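Might I ask for a little of your time on a matter of protein folding? The record follows directly beneath this note:
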Amino acid sequence: MRPVFLAALVALVAGAAAAQPVRLEATVVDAETGAPLAGATAQVAGQEGGASADRDGRLSLALPAPPDTVVVRFVGYATAQVVVTADEAAAARAEGAGRQDANRQDANPRGGAVRRTIRLSPAPFVLGEVTVTDEPPGERLWRRLLARRQSLAARLGQYGAEAYGRLLLTRDGPTDVRPFPFALTETLSNLSWGRGGGLREEVVARRRLPEGGPFEWARMNPVPDLYFEDALALDGRSIPSITRPDALRYYAFRLGETVEADGRRYLDLAVIPRRGGLVAGRVRVVDTLLVIAEADLRLDAARTAAPVDALDASYRWRYEPADAGGALGDSAWLPRRFEREGAVTVRVPGTRVPTVRFQQTSVLDLVLPGAPGEAADLRRRYRSPRGVYTGAGVYRAGRRALPLDSLEVAVDTSDRVRRSTLAELLRPQEGIGFGGIFAGVSRLLGAGFDVEGDDDG
């Protein structure tokens, strides 16, 4: 009986040891530079779930039954397969058991761990018959995004949307003790994009305070499509888009942080212009889908044309998934919000018009993707020609989606704004002690200097 008892005891001890948890504790780094790869993922082959590396490249992954193969991935790098053998697992269990014996008070021992440093090598990007191996990971990723954009444009065909837009102008001149809001514009628009035809916006209703034409150098801008368009119309300039097929001739892209949110993984990239007169900033890409989720760009306006003395402008886009149906599913992300803000200063002989700050927000509703030939099914509310809508009531839905702030309310309820012209409202405040400046600007504006432009779009 004794040999049988000893055999059973050995089996029991071995089984208990085998039941102890085993983990892979790894640090994922760039094989060339040794830099940690934050956001790298690890998954046991054939299993669901996994783990993501923290900002230092460290991750911890439970191993169910070694020997196991762990697949480690990071965008722009070759995938690595790490094999954890049964012997390594047994040694890790023994280590864990030793720690447990050393501290009997530990009621929940962590068990053993297999520790590794996993080095990933940048993966070459293959474009036709050309293999590029020296590009930074961000630019390899952007090439894939550009290819994805071409494919989506062909499969999507077109989309339509309705937009509510609002633009606030404030005066911030040298004699102003505080920014003075003096103009407010609201619009309702139909937007449509078609492959080959570009993005078009038809303004079907407009309300402007004070009445008249727009301020010549800070008017309501159409909503630009950052993803599908080759050129961006920004404040009177045509700027090469960051998503045009040859975008890498104009911009460099550097991979930044990886962000987990709403069950998705996003990659942040820095946008760096290769010459002046372009845009710069940050763009957030949906990993695996390779579509734009957000962008925050600033215009390089160092070169301005007279009479504009200075222009500072930034632009923000937010995209959301649109159910395109069929094979596309929710992989088509379309624009939902566009924001623009900045300041413009105009110089004329003898004096300077006060700096005007602008703040525009456009929100898109009923964003409907469709295939070519289905434009009649886009079910727009805004069918009437321009000028049919009057009064503030038609903007009620837009204002619910985008409530007025205190400065906008001040313009909307101001009798002075309703009674005045733009030229009158642009005169600096009186009684601040700058009589000469005020008199010069007053004479200039009173002499017929036109600050209004033709009606915008």
Observations:
- The chain has eight helices and 22 strands.
- Residues 141-371+394-426+434-440 form one domain.
- The radius of gyration is 30 Å.
- The chain has a mean pLDDT of 77.
